[in-house]
Design goal:
Length: about 230
């Protein structure tokens, strides 16, 4: 069986993320006129996600090992969760935490499909640009269960694989306040999911990685900062 995938960000991804986090930390001091906006995040939300479709794979049936790269036609996901900020009264920036239940579906032509169910946690930093706009940077990690089913075709024999998956990634998001309770959001970032799958005498690793984006709808449970609740 392949060795477990370490939970770490590649250097070429980690460096720009650290740079972005540094901007979030110093921005309030550099732009004091925006500090009147107050960061309050007490949200329930649902995100429609466009997830990475490119993947690398390795198949081992005990006799032969085969590896390569391929791509799903598309991978669409849905994440439902909650997010909370730790900003104090009057603060325009602060730390964020959250959690999500996720489901994703990937299609592989007319011969196969991937289904993924999981849980994700997230943490990061938010900045209220104004009373209507908020910027956030989030790091995410998760664990889930996946199945990869394929019918007979010119490249592969019919097989049904299942197993676990580990996800990590990062995203920058922008939220817009529609009303006291409702907001909409868009985000973009990078996500990697590594699966260890098996079935019918075949062991497989599948690594999906690439750009991800989402469109979200948020419901704010409260617009009061922590000390006033």
């Amino acid at each position: 069986m392949p060795a477990p995938v370490p939970f770490c960000l590649p250097r070429h991804v980690a460096r720009p993320l650290l740079t972005c986090l540094g901007v979030f930390l110093v921005a309030p001091a550099l732009i004091p006129e925006l500090a009147a906006a107050e960061l309050v995040v007490r949200n329930l939300y649902a995100d429609l996600e466009l997830l990475p479709a490119d993947f690398d794979y390795e198949l081992d049936d005990g006799v032969l090992t085969r590896s390569g790269s391929d791509s799903f036609d598309q991978v669409i996901g849905l994440a439902v969760g909650a997010r909370y900020s730790f900003a104090s009264t009057g603060d325009s920036h602060g730390f964020l935490i959250g959690g999500q239940v996720t489901v994703a579906q990937g299609t592989y032509g007319s011969v196969g499909h991937l289904t993924d169910y999981g849980l994700r946690v997230e943490g990061g930093y938010g900045y209220a640009i104004s009373d209507s706009w908020m910027l956030n940077l989030l790091l995410r990690g998760g664990y889930g269960w996946a199945t990869f089913d394929m019918t007979d075709n010119v490249n592969f024999s019919a097989v049904s694989l299942s197993g676990s998956g580990i996800t990590y990634g990062a995203a920058v998001g922008l939220d817009y306040v529609v009303s006291d309770n409702w907001q909409i959001s868009v985000s973009g970032g990078w996500q990697t999911t590594s699966y260890d799958l098996s079935g019918a005498g075949v062991d497989a690793t599948v690594d999906r990685a690439g750009f991800c984006a989402s469109l979200g709808f948020l419901y704010r449970l409260s617009n009061q900062p922590s000390p006033l609740e």
